[in-house]
Amino acid sequence: MLHRCSCPIVIFCLLVLLGSTGGRCPCAEPKADQDAALSRRIDELIRRLGDKRFTERERAAKDLIEIGGPALEPLGKAKNDPDAEIARRAKECIAAIDLNIKVAALVAGLEDSRVEERIKAAKGLKDLRESARGALPALVRALDDPDPNVRLPVMGSLSYMGAQSKSAVPKLIAILKDKQAGDFVRFSAGGCLQFIGPAAEEALPVLLQMLETEKDAPRLGAVIAIGGIGAKDERVIPALIKLLADADPGAQFSAARVLGQIAKSPATVVPALVELLKKNPNDPNDKDVARYAERAGCRRTVIVALGRFGEAAGPAVPALIDIAKDWREEIPTREYAIKALGRIGPNAKAAVPTLEALRNDPQVGGVLEKTLVSALEVISRQEK
Q: For the segment 175-184, what is each residue's pLDDT rounded down to a tens digit?
């Protein structure tokens, strides 16, 4: 009985609901109507690109970019609008929409089941540099990719975004700890943390431990990372000074470079750098060209590091004077030493006679004239 009574009621209700819509659900607006409404909205937003109010112009541009693809054709026409502001902003909107579409396609590629497509997408995002920041969440997820050829360009892309990549730090720390990840991948994780900078300070405990327990590329990656993050931990400076005496020349000079970047604790760091300079003398009789070039490059690294301490590098002046006047040293090395003396300023006044003599030496002055003049002027000016 209930069944027979309920059916007419149900039918009646349906007729009431559908009667005015011709059998269509009232909440389902026809696609043609939706398209027409969107088209009108796009036209209105384009018109507002030329609004007198800056905030309205900015809001209209933002809304058009969010609409994306459907706005491209009308914006393409607006590029030639007689209103210069509308034309300019239309071009900017098109560029932003095109970029968003490209990034979205590459993000989809990062999740492809085919490794070659994921590699292609990761490299594509890396090529976009900081413009790929819209892909940041996907890039962080991609750090878990099992293929190193995906992870490496992903870390490169994150590096371009600097501190904005802070959300990647926990996964980068996990990579540093994972000895199965491969030495170069772990080294690259350190390089990525370097560019994230102080925002990655939570990685310092792991990095400091790596200075003690790791060798080769992973340890060098840790040193590089510490250089970008800075001396946020009181153990950083002593740990780097300890590396100056390491058997690995690469570790020695990477530590020297980072100590110069941090430029703190000169009372202990400057003497240690001078000692390293003395332990690695120039050898003009070395017949091994590669080794000679490497030694010269390392010496210049230490000299630059000393110069970054400024006046506090006074104890390095005698060693720098010896290098500046030593004709057996390469010209670039002597130039670096002269620049460092200039940075030391008044505490380098003992170098003035040497610098004056070099300036008047026709065999030297012509090559290093500008560097000598600059150093002498700085020392004399600060001395007054």
A: 999 999 999 9
